[in-house]
Amino acid sequence: MRAFAVLFFCVLVFVTGAKLRLPTALNIPTSDILYNRQYSLAIKSNLFSYSQTDDPANMKIWYMPSIEASAGIKNRVEFGAGYAGGPTLNFKALLLDEGKIEYLPSFAIGAKDIMTSAEAHMFGLEQADTLKAMANCAFIAMGKSFEQFGTRLHLGTMTNFGFDTERFSIFAGAEVYLGGGFYVTYEGFQRFGSFHQFFTVSWIYDKKFLVSAGISELRQAFLGDGKFGLFSDKFAQSNGYGVPGIRFSLVYCGSPSGADASGIRGLEDEVNDLKKSIDAIRKKSADNDIKVDNIEKQLGGLEEDFIALTSRGSSDRQKDYKVVISEQLKSIGDLVETGQGAYDAEEVSSHTKKIVEYKEFALPSLSAIIRNPKANPVMVSLAIQMVGEIGNKKSRQMLLRLLDYKESALKIDALIALGKLRDKAVVKDIEALLQDTDEAVVLTAQEVIYKLTGVKRAAGTKSEQKITTDSIPELDQEIPGNEDTEAPLEADTAKTNIPEAKPAKKPAPSPGPAKK
């Protein structure tokens, strides 16, 4: 018998496989509680044939409905009262809510059929001693929803203190949502040594009305040989236990004004809540995907830098990088010399970009130009600008070392390049130039500090004596991590192909704030 019940439940789950709701199990205790201040009104009946004399020729129809009213308190307790051949009371309390603790079922305890047994009334029992023994039933009920299968399961045990035998009886049930407001429910409980089963189909309308109809004593309803057991004279007995019948229920659920008006909140509502949670998780996942994309772009930039260090991405990638850099510097030098200060900035920019593409490999050649006292001041200014555009740790260290040079033009160009790096870590080094003797240097330092921090700094006192370029070691040789790179290009113009500036009494200042 129990094996048949398990098989029927498995078929029910895997055939329907949809979503589900709470609660359509009306014949067994459940752990489902009405919400705070919600109430329900129910009428239940079981229609079957019986014989008071156990005579098939004297069959009658039992139809004695019971009524019940219930109310929820604080989402934790439910009280009910009704009439089933006599006054009957019931109550239950929710001890554990499955929605609060993941993976655990809901857990409730309670009592039903206090004073009068509604179960005995439903099955037409009339013996006084049996009615008295079946009253006052205590139960423990568990329930768990499985949204992925569209199913809710019920399980528990109950006891009637008036029974000398069968002190504990098990009960179980399953609910499945079919869609369109329709549900199927299977229930069963143990009584008098047998397992009594119910199969019902329910429909919820407007979240207020629950209508259900089905078959009681499901196994006995199918007699075999193509015969149906309903109202058969084969079951000529004085009560409905073991007699197939038609089960009918009508439930109305409501709430007073100002209370929760969610009505009969079913498992389809839980599914909707789950969908909302999934949507929120998807949105969060999408935000994380955007962050991941940004990180991937940054990693892509690092990868491009790495590729630039190992294999050039331009048409010149097969050439020796020193040759390419030298050719680009020569082209810049020719433009500067030919234009005599009025060179084509756009064309120069196209060459500087190709040099900057080589990152650290370009630093030794640029350092050679900066250290060459005979180099064209415009070329020196452009070299410092390219060091800043390379923008890595080594180029920043080169720019910081230029702040210790005596020549104001070098310091001003280095300050401008540092400002474009947007790195606040260099502010402390720049602050030292607030004490410089050259007003143009001080003004440039103030402007860069303001650009990086938003704070205007006042000029300081005279700084310590600065050293000249002749006493500064080669910049590229002092850059940590540069020891393994190839030797820098020579500083003389014959190898770098950079034209020297023509001698003049005063070298033209590099671009930067004008002296006042």
TrEMBL record:
Residues 462-516 are annotated as: Disordered. SUPFAM superfamilies: ARM repeat. Pfam families: HEAT_2 (PF13646). InterPro entries: ARM-like, ARM-type_fold. It comes from the Bacteria. Gene3D superfamilies: Leucine-rich Repeat Variant. This is HEAT repeat domain-containing protein.
